[in-house]
Write a structure and sequence with these properties.
Layout (H helix, E strand, L loop, with lengths): L9 H7 L27 E10 L4 E10 L2 E9 L5 H18 L4 E6 L2 H8 L10 H11 L4 E6 L6 H12 L12 E3 L3 H5 L13 H10 L3 H6 L3 E4 L2 E5 L5 E4 L2 H15 L8 H8 L1 E2 L3 H5 L1
Parallel strand pairs: 1-4, 3-6, 4-5, 9-10
Antiparallel strand pairs: 1-2, 2-3, 7-8, 8-9
Helix pairs in contact: 2-4
């Protein structure tokens, strides 16, 4: 794919409006045509993403395209400290949010971040609490698509998004004027999306009493019994062997994940059990072993 042309979309305008910033990314009025929504039943869009960081900020670039004349490009300068991995997740979630706003149902993702791609596919475990909110949001957003694929793209095949993400991380805004098509974002995309994708906990959810004990933190005996649990950004996690963090889920989400993982792996190598695949994907609930049999 060559350098994609930027096209207008009300869905993208609405998404950009959610981000606090001083400078908006101008959607090019000179480009004919308009990507309003992805309407075709089997229309698959491709998303490429990349993030980069410097000492005090980061850059995010996302390109979504269906055909050469159907492309959307977004670029952000992240006005908060972030690691390279955090910037990559910011880019990935920005792309997913954009695709959902456009009502894309079938998505193929290409990225050159080995950690993000492998954690999304379940081949890398989550150990860093700072990345836990990102992986949790990714899991909730990916299930919104009818079909979803994610693959690793070598850096030389991701040159366009790589260059713009690097540019976004290095540019310095002076006063309130910036004559470049890069938007400023002063908070993580997690803060923008968390209410929309929050998983409601029903009455009797097994996580509620554990969370209450951890929040209060005044009962040493109970805290000792719950030493394998941790709260990260109001989400409950269980520490597994090797320091792996598995996200705790309620019964409703658990049933969805059982079906999702089973459907994805049905007919594949039977040497790896459904329970083990759920573990690799980073989920936990007390009856997971029994439910997976």
């Amino acid at each position: 794919m060559g350098t994609p042309r930027v096209v207008k979309s009300q869905a993208i305008t609405d998404l950009l409006a959610q981000f606090p910033r001083e400078e908006e990314f101008p959607l090019d009025d000179e480009v004919p045509g308009e990507v309003v929504m992805a309407e075709e039943v089997r229309e698959q869009w491709v998303m490429k993403f990349n993030g980069s960081s410097t000492t005090h900020s980061g850059g995010v670039e996302v390109v979504l395209y269906h055909e050469e004349d159907k492309a959307v490009a977004l670029s952000f300068k992240l006005e908060f400290p972030c690691s390279n991995n955090t910037a990559e997740y910011e880019a990935y979630l920005t792309g997913l949010a954009t695709a959902l706003e456009m009502r894309v149902k079938h998505l193929k993702v290409l990225g050159d971040s080995n950690l993000v791609i492998c954690q999304a596919k379940g081949s890398f475990s989550l150990k860093k609490p700072s990345l836990a909110p990102y992986k949790a949001m990714v899991q909730r957003m990916e299930e919104k698509f009818s079909t979803f694929e994610i693959e690793h793209a070598p850096r030389n095949e991701n040159w366009f998004v790589d260059a713009l993400a690097t540019l976004g991380s290095q540019i310095i805004f002076k006063r309130s004027i910036a004559r470049i098509e890069v938007s400023k974002r002063e908070e993580s995309i997690i803060e923008v999306l968390k209410e929309k994708f929050r998983e409601e906990q029903g009455e009797g959810d097994w996580q509620i009493p554990i969370k209450e004990i951890l929040v209060k933190g005044d009962d040493a005996a109970e805290l000792k019994m719950l030493k394998d649990y941790a709260l990260v950004k109001e989400e409950l996690y269980r520490r597994m062997l090797g320091g792996v963090l598995s996200r705790c889920v309620g019964q409703e989400e658990a049933q969805r994940k059982l079906k999702e993982i089973y459907d994805k792996t049905y007919g594949s190598c039977r040497e790896v059990s459904l329970y083990r695949r759920l573990q690799r994907a980073g989920f936990y609930w007390p009856s997971m072993g029994k439910d997976a049999n």
